[in-house]
Design brief:
It contains 27 helices and seven strands.
């Protein structure tokens, strides 16, 4: 019991009181604030991507290549360009360093917000003529640090803080705006105009970085004003400033937003712009093709992030805060974020892209951590104020149980967000991009592969001689005109896509006569085009003339070397590299389809067998052999495709 007493003395559970001002901190507050900032930042930096990743290809093209890609990313472009001036390693790591830095700042801001709410919840009812005092302030600091660590080490925050252009910058700006808004609400009638101007500037920055984050700022501010006005909080009504100050705040928001979004309008007008994918294009166009990013309910995502126990504690804490007039206005912005995430749920963790609504998911996870801290605080205080036996020991167990959630979320995040050893994307780029012949042309069907090739060219300066033709992006911006200006020989191919949305045999053969042409298989093409294809590493090479079975049979062994290297790179990682595995599965399936349509079932089954090696590797489960029934289904599917495909004539014509 002596040790327990000393523990509670450190946490301030003796009836220690401080003035009601939440900003009166002690040494333990500063130490815990430093821990809540440095630990998530260090963990994210250790897990940061040291090489190119599929997830950050679009931000790399936007932030490093200065290409106008949709509305958003204005702040991350500025931060990434500034960090590229420092010798911190590869350019991809410098971009990821900005995400880790934003995560640390967001964790520090969240710590201050949670501590502010907990101190307000622990204020005693003042007597007449006396000031309210906060009980157990060190306990509030400890629970605030646990809430900040639980959130900052969660899978969503770590996943976004380990790559460049993630949602952490938007999250940090939104939390900073809420901090300013709460200070404005607590200042009473004498609010400095500078705070309103700062709130406007942060709102504009949030919109420029992520429109959903700007919506979250407006929702938080509106909920705070409504509750202070009509929620019977016991605090003075929140008075709006003079029209002059409001006008300055609005001008500040518009100026900052316009300044950060100026590249959206100016970059396509640059005389040496190498690509213009259109101002309306964003990550939505990429996530639409990401089959692994299935949309889930917000409740299911929250359960995966923090668990059922934390959700129950958060519900109890939110109900407790709503019943108290002092904390009703403080909890309202966090509840508004939960409502936004419920109405606009983000997709699950995508394999090749991130959902633009991920910022709302990050803020909702932070709101759940705030409610969980309130629930633990209320339960601990009631135990301490009760006179039941072993109440202090029970309160200690409650706090220690809440502390274990940090380890659980960190372990889950380590399995999902550690990108420090994921080098398979670079290996894929070397084998798919570096092995191409000089002055080749690549007809790409998947937008994810197009972004990967463009990002490799920008980050590593690789293969500027190769022409990348993105099929699904030809109608965006000035992509088609840029390609036609770069090579007039592509005009027949681009004309076919503009008129019929598919290539013709004549246009493909004309391009293949001038330069080596590699394509990504499209099942919607006419069967006649398949007679020109042969396996060439990770691509299908299009020959100017139709080919015979002997030509394809000779090309199959040559594809083994690049496939084996990429598969070995995927297997070498401690954690599964799901993005590269998904791309390789699509490639192997396309190779098997082409070979199976011409009767080479043995080679087709060999490629299908490699797909089994790319199944998600669970270190806690034994590998299960593929049942023979599934192999029979594969053979039946190949025979059916073979029966539907036209048989090539003798001589390959």
């Amino acid at each position: 019991m002596a040790r327990g007493s000393r523990l509670w003395h450190v946490l301030g559970v003796a009836r220690e009181t401080v003035p009601e001002h939440p900003e009166s901190v002690t040494w333990i507050d500063r130490a815990l604030a430093l821990l809540a900032t440095a630990l998530p930042f260090g963990v994210a930096l250790a897990r940061a991507a040291s090489s190119g990743q599929w997830r950050d290809d679009l931000p790399a093209v936007r932030d490093l290549g200065l290409v106008a890609v949709g509305v958003g990313g204005g702040l991350s472009t500025l931060v990434t360009q500034a960090l590229c001036l420092f010798p911190l390693g590869p350019r991809s790591f410098r971009a990821a360093f900005g995400g880790a830095l934003a995560l640390g700042i967001a964790a520090r801001l969240l710590y201050g917000l949670v501590r502010r709410v907990l101190v307000e919840a622990s204020l005693s009812t003042p007597r007449r003529g006396a000031a309210a005092t906060a009980r157990w302030p060190r306990l509030a600091a400890a629970l605030a640090a646990i809430a900040a660590l639980t959130t900052a080490l969660s899978p969503t925050w770590q996943r976004e803080g380990t790559v460049g252009g993630g949602a952490m910058l938007a999250t940090a700006v939104t939390l900073a705006a809420l901090t300013i808004a709460l200070r404005i609400a607590e200042s009473g009638p004498s609010v400095p105009p500078s705070r309103w101007i700062a709130l406007g500037a942060l709102t504009g920055a949030a919109f420029a970085e992520s429109p959903p984050a700007g919506l979250a700022v407006l929702a938080a501010a509106a909920s705070l004003v409504l509750v202070r006005r009509f929620g019977q909080t016991g605090a003075p009504d929140l008075r709006l400033p003079s029209p002059r100050v409001l006008g300055l705040a609005a001008i500040s928001a518009l100026f900052v937003g316009a300044l950060l979004l100026a590249p959206l309008a100016l970059r396509p007008l640059a005389p040496r712009t190498w690509i213009d994918v259109g101002r309306a294009l964003s990550a939505v166009s990429l996530s639409a093709f990401d089959t692994a990013s299935a949309r889930t309910t917000a409740l299911g995502a929250w359960t995966h992030e923090v668990g059922l126990a934390s959700l129950g504690l958060a519900a109890f804490g939110a109900a407790t805060a709503l019943l108290r007039g002092r904390t009703r206005a403080l909890i309202a912005p966090f509840l508004a974020w939960i409502v936004l995430d419920t109405l606009l749920p983000a997709r699950a963790a995508g394999v090749l892209s991130a959902d633009p609504l991920t910022a709302l998911r990050s803020l909702a996870v932070a709101a759940i951590a705030v409610g969980s801290a309130l629930g633990v605080h209320a339960a601990t205080v009631r135990l301490l104020e009760s006179k039941i036996p072993l109440s202090r020991a029970a309160a200690t167990l409650v706090v220690v149980f809440h502390l274990t959630l940090v380890a659980l979320t960190s372990e889950e995040a380590g399995f999902a967000a550690d990108r420090s050893e994921q080098l398979a994307a670079e290996t894929w780029t070397d084998e798919a991009f570096g092995r191409l012949e000089p002055r080749s042309a690549v007809l790409v069907r998947s937008p994810a592969i197009a972004w990967r090739l463009w990002a490799a060219r920008i980050v590593r300066g690789e293969r500027p001689d190769v022409v990348v033709v993105p099929v699904h992006l030809l109608d965006k911006g000035r992509v088609a005109s840029s390609l036609a200006a770069a090579d007039r020989g592509l005009e027949p191919l681009l004309r076919d896509f503009a008129l019929t949305n598919e290539p013709s045999e004549f246009s493909l053969s004309k391009v293949a006569d001038v330069r080596p042409l590699y394509v990504e298989f499209d099942a919607a093409w006419r069967p006649r085009l398949s007679t020109h294809l042969l396996i060439s590493g990770l691509w299908l090479r299009y020959a100017p003339q139709p080919l015979g079975p002997s030509d394809r049979k000779q090309s199959v062994p040559l594809a083994e070397v690049p496939l084996r290297r990429v598969l070995a790179a995927i297997a070498a990682t401690t954690l599964p590299d799901a993005p590269t595995s998904a791309v390789m599965q699509s490639t192997l399936r396309a190779h098997a389809t082409v070979l199976g349509s011409f009767g080479d079932r043995e080679a087709a089954e060999g490629f299908l067998g490699k797909i089994d090696e790319l199944a998600a590797r669970d270190p806690f489960a034994t590998r299960v052999a593929l049942p023979y029934a599934l192999k029979g289904l594969k053979r039946a599917a190949l025979r059916r495709r073979e029966g539907q495909a036209p048989k090539p004539r003798a001589g390959g014509s």
